[in-house]
Amino acid sequence: MYLGFLAEHGGRVVAGAGLTLLEWGPTRGDPQPWRGRIVNVWTDPDFRRRGLARELVTCCMEVARERGVTHLSLGTTEAGRALYEALGFRTSGTEMVRRE
Hints:
Blueprint: E1 2-9, E2 12-23, E3 34-43, H1 52-66, E4 71-74, H2 78-86, E5 90-92, E6 95-99
Parallel strand pairs: 3-4
Antiparallel strand pairs: 1-2, 2-3, 4-6, 5-6
InterPro entries: Acyl_CoA_acyltransferase, Bact_Acetyltransf, GNAT_dom
GO molecular function, one term: acyltransferase activity, transferring groups other than amino-acyl groups
Protein name: GNAT family N-acetyltransferase
């Protein structure tokens, strides 16, 4: 399942983020059968540094929480790392993860 979130300005999309819910199956450490992956985070260069990516990623996190998803992951660039760390994600191998 994919859930997308957009920010618009003047009738055009200026930022977006998505949450993919993956049926993972329960594990010994986590009985929740779903995992979430935040994808497609993007902000138009003219609209960066205004908190849009933070707001949209937070929407993804809230929807995941409402559905009981406790494990989120995402890929990042160096430019996005500080934002995700501020939102509670930690580096794990080649991606970042957040657990409730």
